[in-house]
């Protein structure tokens, strides 16, 4: 398990990413608390790199707020993109009028589509089909994002494919866990900064 020095972590974040508002401080503390409680992570270098990549993904996918958000747009846009009549909507399992808007992207990694809401809800034991806004609750959003990236819920690719003992981390290709190679280099650069930050802020075992 990981344990971080709070002040060192926040100071390190400021040096690498810029000033911190209070809402961002609270968002970071929430995520660090969840990571510290996550028993599936040991304090190994590989797990530190995996967490760094997850945090970089969260930072990018939430427009740098590190809080669960709604995908940008309105219901009309979501229906145009994901409606049951569209190719993408059908691939996402949207079958009813309004599904495109109802199951638009939410969370730390933008859970999208009826099929994904149903699957994540069943795996976590929550009713995301009936209450899709719950995907933005921080505890649920964290579980969706972390479990999804560990287990390959989103694209079939998972953290263990790109971060392995004895091998250099493949931060660029890891983008395939979420979204092809879109912004792969940008997110990889953020992940490297997070890895430096975590290494400097870890408390002695």
TrEMBL record:
GO terms for biological process: cell wall macromolecule catabolic process; chitin catabolic process. InterPro entries: Glyco_hydro_19_cat (IPR000726), Lysozyme-like_dom_sf (IPR023346). The keyword Hydrolase applies. It comes from the Bacteria. Residues 43-145 form the Glycoside hydrolase family 19 catalytic domain. The keyword DNA-binding does not apply. Keywords: Hydrolase. GO terms for molecular function: chitinase activity. This is Glycoside hydrolase family 19 protein. It comes from Lysobacter firmicutimachus.
């Amino acid at each position: 398990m990981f344990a971080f020095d709070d002040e060192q972590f926040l100071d390190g974040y400021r040096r690498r990413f810029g000033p911190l508002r209070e809402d961002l401080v609270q968002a970071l503390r929430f995520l660090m608390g969840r990571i510290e409680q996550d028993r599936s992570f040991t304090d190994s270098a590989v797990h530190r790199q995996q967490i760094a990549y997850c945090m970089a993904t969260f930072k990018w996918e939430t427009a740098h707020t590190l809080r669960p958000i709604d995908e940008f747009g309105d219901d009309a846009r979501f229906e145009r993109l994901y409606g049951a009549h569209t190719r993408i909507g059908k691939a996402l399992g949207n079958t009813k009028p309004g599904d495109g808007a109802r199951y638009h992207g939410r969370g730390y990694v933008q859970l999208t589509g009826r099929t994904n809401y149903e699957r994540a809800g069943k795996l976590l034991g929550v009713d995301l089909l009936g209450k899709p806004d719950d995907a933005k609750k921080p505890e649920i959003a964290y579980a969706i994002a972390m479990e999804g990236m560990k287990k390959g819920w989103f694209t079939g690719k998972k953290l263990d494919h790109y971060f392995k003992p004895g091998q250099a981390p493949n931060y660029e290709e890891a983008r395939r866990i979420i979204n092809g190679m879109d912004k792969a280099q940008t997110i990889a650069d953020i992940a490297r900064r997070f890895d430096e930050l975590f290494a400097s802020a870890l408390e002695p075992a």
